[in-house]
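Hey, I was hoping to borrow your eyes for a little while. A protein chain has come my way and I'm curious about its shape. Take your time with it, there's no hurry, and the full record follows here:
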Amino acid sequence: MIHPVIMAGGTGSRLWPLSRQLNPKQFLRLTDDHQSMLQLTVARLDGLESADPLLICNEEHRFLAAEQMRQSGYEDARIILEPCGRNTAPAIALAALQLAKATGEEADDPLMLVLAADHLIQDVPAFQNGIARAVPLAQEGKLVTFGIVPGHAETGYGYIQRGPELAEGSFQVSRFVEKPDQKTAEEYLSSGDYLWNSGMFMFGARQYLAELEKHRPDILAICQAAFDGASEDLHFTRINESIFAECPEDSVDYAVMEKTDNAAVVSLDAGWSDIGSWSALWDVSDKDQNDNTFTGDVIAQDTERTLVRADSRLVATVGVKDLVIIETKDALLVAHKDKVQDVKKVVERIKGDGRHEHMNHREVYRPWGVYDSIDNGSRYQVKRITVKPGAKLSVQMHHHRAEHWIVVSGTARVTNGEKTYLVTENQSTYIPIGQVHSLENPGVINLELIEVQSGSYLGEDDIVRLKDMYGRT
């Protein structure tokens, strides 16, 4: 039995402005109109003899992750919450500790299949065949990684040099090498001895912990203490923040794979991409007769080899080549395809300037639904709010703002001080400053309303939650 472990951390800053800190690329529909990258990762497990996936994600993404797993058929998905990012070696350690505890000491060492939530794999049967070839190696105590058969001399990936063949398509690892320059990458490609490092792995949970104890006992000790101090909240495992924050940051490659004598690599030719940049997305997307890839409302005149994504309005191009144009409700990116790796520098400038466009979109997802900040000024803000059936916002109050709610569709159950009442379509209600209140959708269809805030301070941190069904503070 394989135990899939899906790592869904990270911010995907090179895919800004679509990928944001609170809604990063693994939760976006980048290569499919209906499923996010995470959901596609879960879907390609179908057909494998595997347990339900175990997800690792950041604390701030917990409800987004849980909702997407629910949509994928996992109503009570097991999710480990990292209070802060410490790279892949500690994250995998937490999953290994969870699986070792769940299976018990007397059971066989549970086989972990470690996958990234934001990778594209176009040939699922080839992927599953590679998984099957890795199983006997992992059962023998090997720490197996999956090496991608390179299609070109790529400088954006690390490489794995193959050693002696262990089985058909499986090799002992000779060495891991860093991202090469162009000349070195071409040499790697022509030799036929090198594979791209995919960042996917298979090994026994206890085997991994033993290797981590051998090579990075400091990481294991802190992860063990933080895991022992974890708490259960709904179907989330909350890792102890004060302990885990002391953990060194290190990747599984540096901490274990490059140091162990038991590393093996399975070659994989399955249409893999990490979608690490906008040019990578253009590479794997369907193109028109001019090698363009368009999503949304786009009019192109004399345009070639260009990627355009229009999320909220018409985008028109005239006489351009080799560009990336990404439009969202609050930001526009125009970049040459050769320079898309530098998008993350723009994100750093946004952060440094104290702006917010790196953090979230205008549309913000919450466990009860979503809101869209459609207008704002010095003393007012207007939001369009959607509350899912049966969902309820926290019982709360604000020190600095009043709120006026106008129901557009559905029915709202409003608690306003000591009163509780229904507000239906075309009706409104007013919440004064300092009033304890809550909003609930008791119906079977979405509740849509317009919220007009007014006051001297309108920040999201002016929310005093008194009671919350989702465990937020």
User: Anything to note?
Assistant: The longest helix spans residues 88-103.
